[in-house]
């Protein structure tokens, strides 16, 4: 099994917003811990919720390899990081709805909203994988359109997968 990485997405905005949100969460936990004695049940609950958000918050990147396409979910605690592999020989086609561009994600307000509130579904790119055996897998990712298009260019040269893009 060859694991040579051909392309890896890199969004500076995603990188900074991921770490900025986690650092803000850690600062909030530190602040709350200073006031814990004032109202232990409420402050304890707020600290727990903030810690949970830090643990589940992830930065998504796509990696194109010789034999697969991988979505990597990097978390603040590396032990919690995961990935999803999609092997070219199992995929029939990919449908991609790509409204999120680098210019969309550069505004701090839209980045904050895309990660935290109900508008996030309209600020994410959607990938639908159709497999040869009839299975269908849907993914919503905050990887920019430009990074996904570059990944698709590499996938097209490595495989015969049909990729349909819409904006």
Largest sheet composition:
4 strands, antiparallel
What name is given to the CATH topology of the domain at 5-9 and 61-166?
PH-domain like
- Please give the CATH class of the domain at 5-9 and 61-166: Mainly Beta
Per DSSP, what share of the residues sits in E-state strands of 2 or more residues? 25-35%
- Average pLDDT number: 87
Distance between the termini: 35 Å
| Morphology | elongated
Which percent bin holds the helix content? 40-55%
* Strand arrangement, major sheet: 1-2-3-4
Short description:
Helices cover 40% and strands 31% of the residues. It contains five helices and eight strands. The strands form two sheets. A four-stranded antiparallel sheet has the order 1-2-3-4. Strands 7-6-5-8 form a four-stranded mixed sheet, covered by helices on one side.
Can you describe this structure?
The longest helix is centred in the N-terminal third of the chain and has 23 residues, at 12-34. The chain has helices at residues 12-34, 40-56, 102-105, 108-116, 145-158, and strands at 5-8, 58-65, 68-75, 82-87, 91-97, 125-131, 136-141, 162-166. The chain contains five helices and eight strands. The protein is elongated and about 60 Å long. It has a domain at 5-9 and 61-166: PH-domain like (Roll), CATH 2.30.29. By secondary structure, it is α+β, with helices and mostly antiparallel strands. The relative contact order is 0.18. 40% of the residues lie in helices and 31% in strands.
């Amino acid at each position: 099994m060859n694991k040579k990485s051909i392309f890896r997405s890199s969004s500076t905005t995603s990188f900074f917003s991921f770490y900025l949100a986690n650092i803000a969460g850690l600062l909030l936990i530190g602040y709350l811990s200073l006031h814990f004695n004032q109202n232990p049940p409420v402050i304890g609950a707020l600290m727990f919720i903030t810690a949970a958000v830090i643990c589940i918050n992830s930065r998504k990147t796509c990696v194109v390899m010789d034999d697969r396409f991988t979505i990597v979910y990097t978390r603040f605690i590396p032990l919690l990081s995961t990935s999803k592999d999609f092997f070219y020989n199992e995929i029939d086609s990919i449908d991609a709805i790509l409204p999120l561009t680098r210019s969309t994600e550069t505004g701090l307000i839209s980045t904050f909203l895309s990660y935290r509130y109900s508008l996030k579904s309209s600020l994410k790119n959607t990938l639908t994988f159709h497999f040869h055996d009839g299975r269908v897998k849907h993914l919503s990712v905050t990887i920019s359109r430009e990074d996904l298009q570059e990944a698709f260019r590499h996938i097209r040269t490595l495989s015969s997968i049909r990729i349909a893009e819409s904006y």
